[in-house]
Amino acid sequence: MDVLNKGSIGRRILKRLVSFIIVIWGVVTLSFCLQVFTGTDPAEMIVRKNSIFATEEQIQAVREQLGLDAPFHERYFDYITGVATGDLGTAITNRQPVIENIKAALPVTCTVIVMAMAWVILFTVILSAISVIRKNGIFDNVTRIICIIGICVPSFWLALILLTAFAVNIPIFHVIADGSIKSLILPSIAMAVPIICISTRVLRASVLNELKSDYVLYAKARGFSNSQIVFGEVLRNALPAAITLFAQYCAALFGTSALVESVFSIDGLGIYLMESCESMDVYGISGAILVCAVLFVLFNTVADILSSMICPAYRRKRV
């Protein structure tokens, strides 16, 4: 039986890896199309940035230097080769490699997101488990109201409230983040709260659905308490829905963190993407979007594989 389970997991992992490669190829292709069909001429922007009186000959020379006058298939092949070797082009704004700009911005964003996801895991499991154990009680009803409010609250507005409360009125934290772990606590909380509220409701509903299963009736007949049943088997079988949601939000934060980062003056990936959009830097935009898309696909693939390993029922359902 263990051999069959291992073989099933192995086939599933192989299937997901193949799907991952195909989707990544599609993402890279769309990123290339973003550069080509965006309607912005990078050569003209580079020349105009240095001189507003640039001639068409100068623009054409830069266009030839960048290979923008090459046939579509040659540019596509060069782009695929460049992405495979870590070359995402040269940013128009600072004339630095895009990959270097992303490497400089990514660590602080990763730190904030990791901290935010730690809050999400901790509070989602605790709140949803207690809500199920005390279903329709005071705690469950209060948690429901708080979650509804938290889902409706924009993260940037919450960031402003937290900044005003705990950095201005009560100066526990700095107004401008200095890169330390302490200075990233408020941004991580601002990112985490809406996700906690959504994940708590999803996990609670999933757990309640699992409580209708036959094995739960059998466990109750054997005299197990609600806490033992919830934390013993039910929570593990209810995790796939929460894991998938967790992975999607975790990956999405890389691209949507700009508003929170701008409130706390954090030079992260979100700010870099926003500044690239403001300056119409097609290489910076496509590079940042490509990284966010790859992370999104990667997180979802890992979440799917992890759900299969944690929950046998999910594996039987999906394979």
Describe the structure in your own words.
- With 319 residues, the protein is mostly helical.
- It has a domain at 97-318: Orthogonal Bundle (MetI-like fold).
- 79% of the residues lie in helices and 0% in strands.
- It contains 14 helices and no strands.
- It has helices at residues 2-36, 42-50, 56-66, 72-84, 98-133, 138-152, 155-169, 185-210, 214-221, 226-256, 258-263, 269-278, 282-310, 312-318.
- It starts with a helix and ends with a helix.
Task: Output the number of helix runs.
Answer: 14
How many strands, what sense, and barrel or not for the largest sheet?
A: none
What portion of the residues fall into strands of 2 or more residues? Answer: under 5%
How many β-strand stretches? 0
Q: In the CATH hierarchy, what is the class of the domain at 97-318? A: Mainly Alpha
Let me know the CATH homologous superfamily of the domain at 97-318: MetI-like
CATH second-level architecture of the domain at 97-318: Orthogonal Bundle
Helix content range of the residues, please?
Answer: over 70%
What is the end-to-end distance?
16 Å
Rg to the nearest angstrom?
Answer: 24 Å
Structural class: mainly alpha
In round numbers, the mean pLDDT is 80
